[in-house]
Amino acid sequence: MATAPRPRTTTRDPQELGRRLTGWLDARLPGARVTGVEVPASNGMSSETLLFALDHPDAPVRACALRLAADPAAYSVFPVYDMARQHRVMRLVAEHTDVPVPRALWLEEDPTALGAPFFVMERAEGRVPPDVMPYTYEGNWLHSASDAERARLQDATVGVLARLHDGFPAGEAAFLLPEGEGSPLLRHVESQRAYYEWVVDGLPRSPLIESAFDWLDAHWPADEGPAVLCWGDARIGNIVYDGFEPAAVLDWEMAALGPRELDLGWTVYLHRFFQDLTVSFGQPGLPDFLRRDHIEARYAELTGHAPRAMEFHTLYAALRHAVVMLRIAYRQLHFGEVRVPEDPDALILHRGSLEAMVRGTYWS
To answer: Which residues does the UniProt record annotate as the domain Aminoglycoside phosphotransferase (predicted)?
Structure first.
C-alpha cells in the first residue's frame, strides 16, 4: 500500500478549467474572478472536485467547490454521471433535514462550458479522515485522537444517518428509484448487477463477484424494511468534521431510495475494508472504532429501528465495493499502470474478506 502508484484521477488541467469557469461565471456575475484554483489531494476517480475562491462583491459565498462529471477520456469509473440528480438531492436534504450539507449554488447541465456537466457549491471548512494513507494507519489526526474523541465522532456520524433516514420524507426520494419492477432493494441490486456487466464487458469476468451475487439471491431478507432516502456513499471519508462533529456531508452521487441498512452496511464495511488492509500490513489499526455491533446499537437507540439482515447488507456493500475496485483496476490496466493478472479476482484488494463473507466465516 505504501509503495503502490496512486491511480491517475484526472486528465484535465485545473488552470485551464479555472479560465473557462471564469468565462462561464461572467454571465452570472459580470466581472467575477476565479482565484486560487486547486485540485484537492483527495480528489476521487469518479466525479472530480475543483476548489477555488470567487472574487465579486455580490458573490453568494467566497470559498467554493465545483463538482465536475468525469472525463470520458479518463476511462470513467461509472457509466453515468447525473450532476443534476446529485444537486437536487443536496438541495432536498438541506430543505427537509438538519443534516449538514454544503450550500448548492449553480448547476450547469450543458457540457460546453467545461467539457462536462457540473455544479458549484459552498466549500466546507474542516478536516476529513484520509483515505491515502487510510485513517486506520498511524500518523493522522483521527488515529492520534483519544478513544473518547473517536467515540464522539462515531456517535455523531451514526446520528447523521439517523436524522437523514428519519427526517427526510421518503416520497420525495421516489425519483431515485432505478427503472424496473420489484422492491427498492431488488431494483438497487439489479442496478448493481447491470453495473457489473458494464464493467466486465469485453474483459475477464470475476468468479468471486458472481458468487457474491448468487449468495445475495440465496439469502434475500424476508423483511426488507421500509425504504428511506439513503446517502449512498455513507462513510466517514465523505464527511468534513469540525473537531469531531460533522460539519458537511459530501458525495451524494450514490443516493438511493432503499432500506436503511444500505447505508449502515456501507458504513460498517468501508471501515472494515481499511481496517482489514491495515492489519494485513502489520499494524493494529483501529479495531474498536466503527464496530458493527456499536453502530447497530447506537442506530437503534436513536431511531427505534433495530437494523436487520446486516450480514446481507455488509456482504452487499463488500460486493458493490468489489465491482468498483474491479473497474478501477481495469482503468489502471487501460492506462498501463498495472499488468493483467491471470486471475481477475486478484485485482480485488479485499478478496479475502469477500470470500469469507460468502463462506459465512467473516463475522464468526
So the answer is: 82-277
Cα atoms found within 13 Å of the Cα of residue 254, Cβ hemisphere only: 23
Other residues' Cβ atoms within 10 Å of the Cβ of residue 16: 12
Residues of the chain with pLDDT under 70: 1-11, 41-46
Q: Using one digit for the tens of pLDDT, what is the confidence trace for 162-188?
A: 999 999 999 999 999 999 999 999 999
Q: Which of 214, 233, 242, 251 is catalytic?
A: 233
**Is the CB of residue 259 less than 8 Å from the CB of residue 313?**
yes
* Cβ-proximal residues to 276 (8 Å cutoff; 6+ apart), any chain: 350, 352, 353
At 70 the pLDDT is 84
Query: What pLDDT is attached to residue 306?
Result: 97
What is the three-class DSSP state of 65? strand
Whether 233 sits among the annotated catalytic residues: the reply is yes
Scored b (16 or more CB within 10 A) or e, 171-207 reads: ebbeebbbeeeeebbebbbeebbebbeebbeeeeebe
DSSP string computed for 191-216: HHHHHHHHHTTTS---HHHHHHHHHH
State how far the Cα of 267 lies from the Cα of 179, in Å rounded to an integer: 26
Q: Taking CA 110 as the corner, what is the angle to CA 105 and CA 115, rounded to the nearest 5 degrees?
A: 100
Query: Quick one: cell of 187?
Result: 431494483
Residue 118 CA to residue 110 CA, distance in Å, equals 8
